[in-house]
């Protein structure tokens, strides 16, 4: 399509944050396809959840919060989370008639005409007065670089390409990363692999007791401070610690979660520390997290010297037309819901201010 279509708001991404934002737009009077459009590059509903490995069942998911206006009830905890949540998101889109367009790849967002933004996509261009960016992180896995990495004769993969423990049967696996994915991988791999080794940059912090509202607010505040300063955001999980549940306790007691400090180099046969310690490996599994998918916003020059986009609430400080939801402090399921509502509230105010005053 060669022509440019005009809407009031473009939502990029239809994961938790994007759907929450679309819902609040719909609820406050914006009509899909007429006033706003939701674009998603994934093949189907489910956001990043649709790509999770089959052994991550719904019962293992930490803190999946319902989308606004529709609870997720009666889900079988033994079913893969990818199936459960994709079906839930699909039902949500249909129930609220959000009319998500997919698959649509957003290639760039740049300055348009008449104080509008121009969103260039694989499905043509959109001219919009405001933008809600809800692209998440799944499409940008973070791969650290270590000396000798290119010489390793075994297999290296990231969590983003992990398909389950069965394919590692009889292999020696080094798991890198101290987050929830790393511990989940180790606990799953232990019955299959010939050996597992866990390495992290910092000693893992395990959290005892309930994670109440005050603790949650404190954790979010730490992440929020980084984005206010224009620094790349850290995940909320990075400041909350890992929940010390029965599975984690069993892993600690059995030695599966016996953590080693980060190695110094990778060799042809495995990994090596400066003190001469070596671990042979067939596989290095990088559970090292993800980075925000924001390269399509580069033409707007929103990044600060610190490498991140400075955000107040959800609004990009450098351009009040742009809101980032599911970014930094809102990169959790409950945070994404709240951010979607806050972004729509601010956008409604912005659009009202832009309306011409009658003579």
**Overall outline:** globular
Rg (CA only): 22 Å
Helix-and-strand structural type: alpha/beta
The DSSP helix count reads: 7
Mean pLDDT: 90
* Counted beta strands: 18
Contiguous runs where pLDDT drops below 50 for at least 5 residues: none
The major sheet is characterized as: 8 strands, mixed
Return the string of H and E elements: EHEHEEEEEHEEHHEHEEEEEEEEH
The share of residues in helices is 10-25%
Oligomeric state, counting identical vs distinct chains: single chain
Ends distance: 38 Å
Strand content: 15-25%
Keywords:
eight-stranded mixed β-sheet, 359 residues, alpha/beta, 7 helices, five-stranded parallel β-sheet
Could you characterize the architecture of this molecule?
- Helix 1 packs across helix 7 (about 335-355).
- It is globular, with a radius of gyration of 22 Å.
- It starts with a strand and ends in a 5-residue tail after the last helix.
- The chain has helices at about 15-25, 80-95, 180-190, 215-230, 235-240, 245-255, 335-355; strands at about 5-10, 35-40, 105-110, 115-120, 125-135, 155-160, 170-175, 195-200, 205, 240-245, 260, 265, 270, 280, 285, 310, 315, 320-325.
- It is built from seven helices and 18 strands.
- With about 350 residues, it is α/β, with parallel strands linked by helices.
- Strands 1, 2, 3, 4, 5, 16, 17 and 18 form an eight-stranded mixed sheet that branches. It has a five-stranded parallel sheet with strand order 6-15-7-8-11, with helices on one face.
């Amino acid at each position: 399509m060669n022509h440019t279509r005009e809407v009031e708001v473009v939502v990029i991404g239809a994961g938790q944050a994007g759907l929450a934002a679309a819902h609040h737009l719909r609820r406050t009077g914006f009509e899909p396809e007429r006033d706003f459009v939701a674009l998603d590059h994934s093949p189907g509903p489910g956001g990043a959840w649709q790509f999770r490995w089959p052994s991550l069942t719904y019962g293992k998911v930490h803190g999946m919060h319902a989308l606004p206006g529709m609870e997720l009830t009666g889900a079988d905890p033994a079913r893969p989370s990818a199936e459960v949540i994709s079906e839930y998101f699909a039902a949500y889109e249909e129930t609220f008639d959000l009319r998500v367009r997919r698959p649509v790849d957003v290639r760039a967002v740049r300055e348009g005409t008449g104080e509008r933004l121009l969103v260039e996509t694989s499905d043509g261009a959109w001219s919009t007065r405001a933008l809600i960016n809800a692209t998440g992180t799944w499409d940008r896995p973070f791969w650290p670089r270590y000396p000798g990495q290119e010489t390793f004769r075994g297999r290296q993969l990231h969590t983003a390409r992990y398909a389950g423990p069965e394919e590692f049967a009889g292999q020696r696996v080094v798991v890198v990363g101290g987050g929830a994915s790393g511990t989940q991988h180790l606990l799953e791999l232990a019955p299959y692999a010939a050996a597992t080794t866990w390495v992290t940059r910092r000693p893992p912090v395990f959290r005892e007791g309930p994670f109440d509202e005050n603790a949650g607010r404190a954790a979010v505040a730490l992440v929020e401070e980084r984005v206010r300063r224009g620094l790349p955001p850290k995940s909320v999980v990075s400041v909350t610690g890992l929940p010390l549940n029965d599975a984690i306790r069993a892993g600690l007691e059995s030695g599966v979660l016996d953590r080693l400090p980060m190695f110094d180099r990778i060799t042809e046969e495995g990994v090596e520390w400066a003190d001469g310690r070596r671990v042979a490996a067939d596989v290095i599994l990088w559970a090292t997290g993800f980075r925000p998918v924001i390269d399509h916003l580069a033409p707007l020059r929103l990044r600060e010297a610190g490498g991140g986009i400075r955000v107040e609430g959800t609004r990009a400080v450098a351009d009040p037309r742009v809101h980032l939801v599911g970014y930094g402090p809102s990169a959790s399921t409950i945070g994404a819901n709240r951010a979607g509502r806050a972004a729509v509230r601010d956008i409604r105010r912005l659009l009202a201010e832009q309306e011409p005053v009658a003579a």
